[in-house]
Amino acid sequence: MRKMPEVNCSRGAPKGRYECAYPPTDDIKLHIAEVVISNDGYDNGGAYWGTGERLFMAHAGCDYPDIEYYTRARNKIEAVKNFKNRHPTMVFRNYKWLEETNG
Hints:
The chain is of the alpha+beta class. The protein has one domain (29-102). The protein is 17% helix and 20% strand. The chain is built from two helices and four strands. Strand 2 and strand 3 (68-73) form a beta hairpin.
């Protein structure tokens, strides 16, 4: 489980987190991780997401800490499809088999 960065809650928890505004270049390989949401709808860093479908993030890791994207999905396969629908140039680390078999 990835520890989410703490958020400033001095005026209440923010709703969600900021996403990177631009699509990643194809030389940046992204990881996919499920964001653990409490029964109250908060991630482990204090941001509020609400409840519902599972939440996934695509992130570039320590090399590019500001590159993060979020989507709701039933599973990782659906999450990859959601991310690729929004940003077709996304490349995922260790998910080549998934991209080949599930487009």
